[in-house]
Amino acid sequence: MSILEVKDLSKIYGKGDTAVKALHDVSFSVNKGDFVCIIGPSGSGKSTLLHLLGGVDRPTSGKVLIDQTDIYNLNETQLAIFRRRQIGLIYQFYNLIPILTVAENMTLPMLLDGQKVDQDHFNKVVHILGLNERLDHLPNQLSGGQQQRVSIGRALISNPAIMLADEPTGNLDSKNSAEIMELLKMFNKTYNQTLIVITHDERIALQADRIISIEDGKIAKDEVIRP
Ligand code: ADP
Ligand code: ADP
Q: Organism's domain of life (predicted)?
């Protein structure tokens, strides 16, 4: 079953002579439980695609369906709720809220929606991420690798349909990068969590089951490397 369908997606920034076509008619679909890397050089349109998959921008044309919901048919309020429940976003610089503890950062998206946090699920995720002893700490009391674990926890706490990571290891040393990739792959393989990672790093991309290469706003290659 496809959990993500991208249909003829295009994005043009600006108007007239200065318009930039960042994405042209991109189409692909991703099955539940897949691990896909989207790779491409700087300026190829990766961030634009990520923002469109994550519901944080709107396309010029085309559709994004996540678990059968046409997300750009939703109004802003509905889209914000859908995003917090169904799209787990992980950023290069973690985007944690500095004045909130680890536990508060992890549960904030659910609390904003008035959803009850499933304590068993929360405890399980915290345990896997090795954050048991860190729940009352503030982000600046943690190492970079630990901050990224918190952001993975925040992304997973609502059991999202897809997990979307933007250069998740881009700010980490090689040991922490490897640990974060192992954790992401563990959630993917053990819990069938669909995972999409955007990267410019071929070593990261080669860990995926499938690599979609983007060049000049188009899909240049789409290869399954682990069937
Ligand atoms: P990547 O993430 O692969 O580096 P981007 O999606 O950031 O690529 O950029 C794709 C193209 O769109 C580039 O030519 C970039 O300059 C342009 N672009 C990105 N964001 C904007 C914006 N907000 N306004 C105008 N042009 C933009
Ligand atoms: P890592 O092993 O992830 O590279 P570090 O070497 O940065 O982590 O940190 C080692 C230990 O020190 C970690 O347990 C981390 O929580 C703790 N630590 C790192 N930075 C700080 C800080 N600013 N305040 C308190 N504890 C910290």
A: Bacteria
How confident is the model at residue 147, as a pLDDT? 97
Cβ(147)–Cβ(139) under 8 Å? yes
Is the distance from CB of 163 to CB of 194 less than 8 angstroms? yes
Domains delineated in the chain: 34-58+74-224 (3.40.50.300)
- At 1 the pLDDT is 81
Q: Closest ligand 2 atom to the C-alpha of 134?
A: 16
Residues of the chain with pLDDT under 50: none
Above 0.90 for ipTM, yes or no? no
| Ligand 1 pocket mutation, candidates 48, 91, 92, 164, criterion most atoms within 8 A of CB | 48
Ligand nearest to the CA of 199: 1
CA of 127 to the centre of ligand 2 (A): 18
Residue position matching structure tokens 């189409």: 27
| pLDDT per residue as tens digits for the range 2-29 | 999 999 999 999 999 999 999 999 999 9
Give distance in angstroms: CA of 109 to centre of ligand 2: 26
DSSP 58: -
CB count in 10 Å sphere of residue 144: 16
| Residue 113: per-residue pLDDT | 86
Report helix angle 174-191 to 144-156, nearest 10: 20
Distance from Cα 143 to the centre of ligand 2, integer Å = 4
Instruction: Give the ligand with the smallest distance to the CA of 41.
Output: 1
